[in-house]
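Box 3.1 A note on notation
Throughout this textbook, protein chains are presented in two layers. The first layer is the amino acid sequence; the second is a token string describing backbone geometry. Keep the layers aligned when reading.
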Amino acid sequence: MRLTVSRKRPPRYDLPKAAPEPLRLVQLFLNTTDHEHGRELLGTPEQVRTWFGGRGLDPGPIGGASARRVREVRESVRRLLAGHGQDEVLTDAARRARLTLDLAAGRLVPQAPGVDAALGTIAATIYDAVNDGSWARLKACRNCGWAYWDASRNRSATWCSMQLCGNRAKVRRYRSARSRPRSRAAAEAEIPRSGV
């Protein structure tokens, strides 16, 4: 007996569709929490320091209040992504970062040190993405909440992964339709009538 090995790689459900740089930083920031499984990657000051440090941003010394503020900014960005508009949390993060225009770099840069600079980099990236139109392609999955890049031509993607979240949503819809009681008219339409 001979087993065939599939050359097609299985989908990576842990990595949603990647946004282009520098918007990828915002996507990764949003995906530091897993709503489906209750995992928090920025739960402690050490985790916040490690996460930002791994992306080339120096958050400086982080305490419990700073870690909480980072999570609050993340949830503010998530609300913005969902179309709820900018709120005071994100505005405050930009203000604290002291964002200024750097004409040589052609972007906003934070002047504040530490965690304010790290959050300012995220705010400046969002600002640039809104201005260049790429923000509209970063979306939150309707099923699991993960941020993903909508690479579809007509910008109509609704799930981070068709193989996982799309399939789950379709199965849920199918089961819901099958479990609903059928109307009497539908049931009578299926009964074969003799002599008619």
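The beta strands are 33-34, 39-40, 99-102, 107-110, 138-140, 147-149. The chain is about 45% helix and 10% strand.
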